[in-house]
Amino acid sequence: MLAWIGGISAILWLVVSSNSDRSLSQPNSASRAPAQPLPLTGAFDSSDNSRRNSITVKTQSGGQHTLIKIERLGGGEVTRGFVRAGEQHKFYLPAGTYVLKTAGGSAWYGEKLLFGANTAYSKPDDTFSMVAPGEQWTVELIPQRDGNLRDRQISASEF
Hints:
globular; disordered N terminus; mainly beta; 11-stranded mixed sheet; 42% strand; 159 residues
């Protein structure tokens, strides 16, 4: 399932469903809250760039803005980061196995409301293992024919 390039890189394509029913309501209504300026790509990321392992997340131009949450397999958030539509961001991580979760949308309402009632939450069906120093993953949140990673809708509480 993994394609190794130069012994240290793996490339994954995430196929994002175009199902319009992926939006879930959040407990607080963003309809009364004003939209806020979009954070810059990389905002909220607390990863340590001295680490040699990384996951680069690319988003679709003209698509949704995305808040990426990276957790250790079994739970526990390691970092999170905002990625504007059409941009990419590299998360630096220690050795381990990770799960990515995404929250996407167009209008930003802040860290508590995220993208408001229209926030779409998802999680890839696979994990990202980085055991040896220098391993790198690239995840493209761009619909692609013959992509090799599927995602599934999750609830706001699972995010």
